[in-house]
Design goal:
- The chain is mostly helical.
- It has a domain at 1-53.
- 60% of the residues lie in helices and 0% in strands.
Length: 80
């Protein structure tokens, strides 16, 4: 029977693939050293987490000057 994976499992697999690719790039950049796989993996995880935190979008219900600055749109809500 075919099962559709849940969204969390998909995101975990996508994230793991990103971390794997980044860890490999770190390993290559350091000249293919042996015995540092765990350190490369942890560094890659930290870099991916930091990048993901930096691109989080604002709350779509946000309004006011901050939302206006981020979206370039004026609030349609009447003042007061």
């Amino acid at each position: 029977m075919f099962q559709i994976p849940n969204q969390e499992a998909i995101m975990t697999e996508e994230n793991e693939a990103r971390v794997r690719q980044r860890a490999h790039a770190i390993w290559e950049a350091q000249g293919h050293p042996e015995g540092l796989a765990t350190e490369h993996w942890r560094q890659a995880e930290a870099e991916i987490a930091q990048a993901q935190a930096a691109v989080q979008l604002p709350n779509p219900l946000a309004s006011g000057a901050a939302a206006q600055a981020l979206t370039g749109k004026r609030s349609t809500k009447a003042p007061g």
